[in-house]
Amino acid sequence: MLGPVILAASRSDKMRRFVSAAPGTKQVVARFIAGETVDQVIPIVREAAERGLEVTLDVVGEDITTREQSFAARDAYLELIGRLKELGLGARAEMSVKLSMFGQALEGGHELALANVRPVVEAAAEIGTTVTLDAEDHTTLDSMFAIHSELRKDFPQTGCVIQAYLFRTEEDARRLAAEGCRVRIVKGAYKEPAAVAFQDKAEIDKAFVRVLRILMEGEGYPMIGSHDPRLIAIAQDLAHRAGRKLDEYEFQMLYGIRSEEHLRLAAEGHRMRVYTAYGTDWYGYFMRRLAEKPANLLFFARSILTKG
User: Which of 37, 68, 85, 110 suits 79 as a labelling partner, its CA being 20 to 30 A distant?
Assistant: First the structure.
């Protein structure tokens, strides 16, 4: 299977240089990355709002090595929030953050990441929006959930992400659903060992449905992160069975993937949020998008061949 190979390549500096230099890369990256700067992403937020869509914005970047880089990541989000405030777009856009970008893996990283993310959460709350903590590999999750719990003491709307392919996730979902959290459920996009995660696609799909049922029947606000038509239909059925109204859950999909489905769900009255990434450090995010779907990899390969 190519997926695990691509995920391994996502942490390779040699592959990063090769992919970045490939003639067709820029064209394909533009499909998944909304731009490199705040100025480039703001028009996309405005257009989404005009179409009845909401967004969650991710300033891409991870695997930082210095505290100064973690401060720069914090400041990039604060700049973004400031621009959303100026333009009155806060109600249409939330933020998604990876705590690795805020220094989580550095010495004293748990405290550093919390200190860096708190002002971002505060600033988001001031403009009427919120922040969701993205899930990364399984070794980071205890820290992420602890930071999520700490932030919710003052900002209960702070969200988090759980990954269906991990064995631990059903237990996490029960706890988070009972606490009334905003929770995004995704399949998972990191290379995880068989000791902690399902490896078979069918098993991952089954786990996704089990976890989604827990969230729908719980006290929180489920956010369904999937492009799979079957899982979307199942989510709608589970929401109906749980007696949820259309504003008591939402769908989330990636920028550049199944855009027509974004509009269809919004037209049906669903809350539809587009996960929109931007920034210059796009490589890790881009490689995970290739790993998730063979068609994405084929699209990339054809672009390289035709541009080479």
Answer: 110
Predicted TM-score (pTM) of this structure: 0.87
DSSP string, 28-68: HHHHHB--SSHHHHHHHHHHHHHTT-EEEEEE------SHH
Question: Which of 58, 74, 118, 134 is an active site residue?
Answer: 134
* Residue 200 is among the residues annotated as catalytic for this protein: no
Task: Name residues whose C-beta falls within 8 Å of residue 111's C-beta, 6 or more positions apart in sequence.
Answer: none
- Residue 166's Cα: distance from chain center in Å? 16
pLDDT of residue 190: 86
The per-residue pLDDT for range 45-102, each reduced to its tens digit, is 999 999 999 999 999 876 789 999 999 999 999 999 999 999 999 989 999 999 999 9
Residue 134 falls in the annotated catalytic set: yes
Decide: 238 and 18 in contact? Cβ < 8 Å. Answer: no
Check 74, 118, 152, 184 and give the catalytic one.
184
H/E element, 1: none
- 58 - beta bridge partners? 277
Residue with token string 């400041």:
75
Identity of residue 142: D
End-to-end CA distance of the chain: 26
For 160, phi and psi rounded to 5 degrees?
-145, 170
- Rounded to an integer, what distance in angstroms lies between the CA atom of residue 198 and that of residue 193? 8
CA separation for the pair 62, 242 (Å, rounded): 37
CA angle 171, 287, 44 (to 5 degrees): 90
* Of the candidates 82, 124, 76, 73, the residue with the CA atom closest to the CA atom of residue 102: 73
pLDDT tens for each residue of 171-207: 999 999 999 999 999 999 888 999 999 999 999 999 9
Distance CA 54, CA 49 (A): 6
> Using alpha carbons only, what angle is made at residue 28 by residues 252 and 55, rounded to the nearest 5 degrees?
25
